[in-house]
Design goal:
The structure holds 2 protein chains of 2 kinds. Chain A is built from no helices and 11 strands. By secondary structure, chain A is mainly β. Chain B contains no helices and 11 strands. In chain B, strands 2, 4, 5, 6, 9, 10 and 11 form a 7-stranded mixed sheet that branches. A 4-stranded antiparallel sheet of chain B has the order 1-3-8-7, with no helix packed on it. The chains are: A mainly beta, B mainly beta.
Chain lengths: 107, 119
């Protein structure tokens, strides 16, 4: 199975900050990497697919990059509605696996 | 608009069974692979099982293999998860999830249904 790790596990930031979350796969997954946002009590919502493609309807302040084993999710200017937990997920092989999550809260 | 509505969750004793359903609307259901993903209380996301659009191919996480069965009825636009020999560690919110492309590029998620395994 492909193991996914994320760093940091949590971070505190202010509105307007630039935020970067890193995801690493235990083996190469090409660009088969997706990012999700989850708010408490809600289902996850896809932000980025195929490492760098913005899902329709997602604000352009979200961006993704990377390939192979190392990936990054960047929020260019954090907004109040962005405080949530973020998960990466590989869609390269079975079983699909998720990172442990990064919780972004208010500083 | 795509909507996925899960049902069938509840409280069940260890060793018991439960069947989850997911009714899909706003989508050509038989064109897409579907998965179940679960989330234990306060924990992260865990993929459980997937089924192809036609229903002739399935995959399972090792943690549920031999106990859970995924199926679909494309005439009813409905996905199922039959869960047998339930354990305390199966306690979670179960999400029905549609793949945008391939098996695991997920785009739409249901609201989830809570399964609690406890005596």
């Amino acid at each position: 199975d492909i193991q996914m790790t994320q760093s940091p596990s949590s971070l505190s930031a202010s509105v307007g900050d630039r935020v970067t979350i890193t995801c690493r796969a235990s083996q190469s997954i090409s660009s088969y990497l997706n990012w999700y946002q989850q708010k408490p009590g809600k289902a996850p919502k896809v932000l980025i697919y195929a490492a760098s493609s913005l899902q329709s309807g997602v604000p352009s302040r979200f961006s993704g990059s990377g390939s192979g084993t190392d990936f990054t999710l960047t929020i260019s200017s954090l907004q109040p509605e962005d405080f949530a937990t973020y998960y990466c997920q590989q869609s390269y092989s079975t079983p699909a696996t998720f990172g442990p999550g990064t919780k972004v809260d208010i500083k | 608009e795509v909507q996925l509505l899960e049902s069938g969750g509840g409280l069940v004793q260890p060793g018991g069974s439960l069947r989850l359903s997911c009714a899909a609307s706003g989508v050509t259901f038989n064109s897409y692979a579907m998965s179940w993903v679960r989330q234990a209380p306060g924990k992260g996301l865990e993929w459980v099982s997937a089924i192809s659009g036609s229903g002739d191919s399935t995959h399972y996480a090792d943690s549920v293999k031999g106990r859970f069965t995924i199926s679909r009825d494309n005439s009813k636009n409905t996905l199922y998860l039959q869960m047998n020999s339930l354990r305390a560690e199966d306690t979670a919110v179960y999400y029905c999830v549609k793949a945008q492309r391939g098996w695991y590029r997920f785009d739409y998620w249901g609201q989830g249904t809570l399964v609690t395994v406890s005596s």
